[in-house]
Amino acid sequence: DSGVTQTPKHLITATGQRVTLRCSPRSGDLSVYWYQQSLDQGLQFLIQYYNGEERAKGNILERFSAQQFPDLHSELNLSSLELGDSALYFCASRTGTTADTQYFGPGTRLTVL
Amino acid sequence: AQKVTQAQTEISVVEKEDVTLDCVYETRDTTYYLFWYKQPPSGELVFLIRRNSFDEQNEISGRYSWNFQKSTSSFNFTITASQVVDSAVYFCALTSNYGGSQGNLIFGKGTKLSVKP
């Protein structure tokens, strides 16, 4: 158990809908990262937050957004969903610096029908 | 640009065989960090090891060992006496502060290891 929690574990929805994925980092970790794992693109970095502020963006679509709340949990919002958004979405957290290891949550498997 | 290459897409071995998973990386940073993660069939990503660019010592942990060679930009992972429970997809990853990166991981495509009884 990494100490990172993600809910829900599975999510099935229809095209055009909006969903919210939730992540709680390990106790004491200030940085939260979101990654998407799909068959064609592999594991890709989406966005990072540090202590409530956005710090870096990767290959994140404009239809996707995220935030980190004062209690450090983070939410990833996916809107106007398309079939191609079906993927496994991971959240990871680390304590502070680049040197620190990122620990991953169990992931949320999103299926868009 | 930063890149991680895992040329072996799939490897199949019989239990008790030794197996080496290859990882080659590219980065312009002089300070960087390399990782291996395991993704078993259940889907979670499990951290195995972290190595920084200044530490070229090889590491052994039980049946697992890692060989880091800066001269060839490689960070290979060997499982000795493989077991069925080692069946998983293994990812090599790289991070640094290159190009303003905030430490996000660059992953290879992964190597799927199947260990047959």
Biggest chain pair interface? A-B, 29 and 25 residues
Total beta-strand segments of chain A: 11
Structural class by SSE content of chain B = mainly beta
Q: What is the number of E strands of chain B?
A: 12
Q: Which H/E pattern describes the elements of chain B?
A: EEEEEEEEEEEE
Largest sheet of chain A: 7 strands, mixed
What's the SSE blueprint?
The complex is a heterodimer of chains A (113) and B (117).
Chain A: E1 5-7, E2 10-13, E3 19-24, E4 31-38, E5 42-50, E6 53-57, E7 64-68, E8 74-78, E9 87-94, E10 103-104, E11 108-112
Parallel strand pairs in A: 2-11
Antiparallel strand pairs in A: 1-3, 3-8, 4-5, 4-9, 5-6, 7-8, 9-10, 9-11
Chain B: E1 3-5, E2 10-14, E3 19-21, E4 24-26, E5 32-39, E6 46-52, E7 59-61, E8 64-69, E9 74-79, E10 88-96, E11 106-107, E12 111-116
Parallel strand pairs in B: 2-12
Antiparallel strand pairs in B: 1-4, 3-9, 5-6, 5-10, 7-8, 8-9, 10-11, 10-12
What does this structure look like?
The complex is a heterodimer of chains A (113) and B (117). Chain A has 113 residues and is an all-beta fold. Chain A is 0% helix and 53% strand. Chain A contains no helices and 11 strands. In chain B, strands 2, 5, 6, 10, 11 and 12 form a 6-stranded mixed β-sheet that branches. The termini of chain B are far apart. Chain B has 117 residues and is mainly beta. Chain B has strands spanning 3-5, 10-14, 19-21, 24-26, 32-39, 46-52, 59-61, 64-69, 74-79, 88-96, 106-107, 111-116. Chain A binds chain B through residues 2, 31, 33, 35, 42-45, 48, 50, 55-56, 58, 88, 90, 92, 94, 97-107, 109, and chain B through 33, 35, 37, 43-47, 50, 52, 91, 95-97, 100-110.
